[in-house]
Amino acid sequence: MAELVLAVDLGGTNLRAAVLDAQGGIRVRRSQPTPRQDTCPDALLALVGGILAEQPVTGAVIGVPGRIDHANGALEHAPNLPPHWPEALREELLAGHLGVPVSLANDADLATVGEVRYGAGRGAADVVYVTISTGIGAGVVLGGRLVRGRRSVAELGHTVVDLVALRSGAPATAEDLGSGTALGRAAAARGLPASGAQVAALVDAGDARATEVFAQVAEVAAVAVTNAAHLFAPEAVVLGGGMGRDHRLPDLVRGMLAERGPRGLEPPIAVRTAELGDDAGLIGAAGWAALTAPAGDREQPR
């Protein structure tokens, strides 16, 4: 029987779960709104209990929107989850509830693994994945291995991109100024719909105000990606998330990389659009062990 893995995405808005095979194929999936009043083990078991009864798995990978302490197998900080959940998000505790080994993962790291192993990052050993949506998240694979230390890293959205704003106490980070949320806020300030999708539609229709707002926010996102390129000199950058997959973003990022990115890279950094959509994090669970194993044990990217 083929080995199967349980993937769980614990989001602040929705909980999603899937069973995946080794090729990243989804055998079954479930989803429900995040029950913010329930305890975490109860909410998790309600979501996956029926799945595990039908689909025996060899392990589980649980993605969370926060910082993971990998040394202790615990969630350290996740502001978008119910405040009483983090204490319960420990690998040992969850393994006892689910009856299989559990790995906790930052959700952007999981999406990175998904895109590198099964999506737009295939064939590259060094990849920076950036998701630009409600916020900005990132993950990095170097030499075919996910970059992490004791803790999950590459919190690109929280890096400062505007020192003048920082000094005045105004929004100053990449996420503050270059995310989908930033786009909605800037659009509303100009009397436009506070919806990234609606702003994008107005840009497509030639609306001058929407075009200006989108360009300003997208420029910040492109700067953030370029900063990551200087830090890691990847072969490829993969752009995901609702705003990151906008058809205008790749060319904007390529232009910023050409103007401000690392010099003398040959070939230049490839800029690709994510292929797995909202399933990237779930599918990443299938490749999690391969890209986080010790160097001598891991498989090479396919």
Task: List its traits.
302 residues, alpha/beta, Nucleotidyltransferase, domain 5, 10 helices, 12 strands, 21% strand
Q: Gist?
A:
With 302 residues, this protein is of the alpha/beta class.
- What is the chain-wise order of helices and strands? EEEHEEEHEHEEEHHHHHEHEH
And the CATH topology of the largest domain? Nucleotidyltransferase, domain 5
Bulk shape: globular
How much is the radius of gyration in Å?
19 Å
- Summarize model confidence as the mean pLDDT: 91
Largest β-sheet summary: 5 strands, mixed
State the domain count: 2
Helical content class: 25-40%
Q: How many β strands by DSSP? A: 12
Fold and architecture overview:
The protein has helices spanning 40-54, 91-98, 107-118, 163-168, 174-178, 180-189, 196-204, 208-232, 249-260, 280-292; strands at residues 5-10, 14-20, 26-33, 59-64, 67-69, 74-77, 102-106, 127-132, 136-142, 145-146, 236-240, 270-273. α3 (107-118) crosses α10 (280-292) and α6 (180-189) runs antiparallel to α8. The mean pLDDT is 91. The protein is of the alpha/beta class. A hairpin with a 5-residue loop joins β2 and β3. The chain is globular and about 55 Å long. The two termini are 23 Å apart. The chain folds into two domains: 5-110 and 279-292, 2-Layer Sandwich (Nucleotidyltransferase, domain 5); 123-274, ATPase, nucleotide binding domain (Nucleotidyltransferase, domain 5), CATH 3.30.420.
